[in-house]
Fold this protein.
Amino acid sequence: MPRAAERKEHPLSMRLPEADIAIIDRAATLRGRSRTDFVREAAVRAAEDVLMESAPIRMSADGFGAFLKALSSPATTVPEMVELLRRPAPWENGAQKTGN
């Protein structure tokens, strides 16, 4: 008799308030995803963020020296950033057009 295929997925059960399910379902629908796919993706992304926060950054002594030098160097102006920061925010433009 053939051996049953080994299952590679593991079930995860959660009890959530109805309001939470409604929010999750609404967001999943907006993304065109199933509830399961949406929750799985969000949980994995959150877990990766936590793991990345605690991951050490390793570099050579020369690399660290270059990093410190870059941090210690005077800041240089990036004209595109200056121009961008001088522009009014989109919601400020809208308020000015309507006279609010």
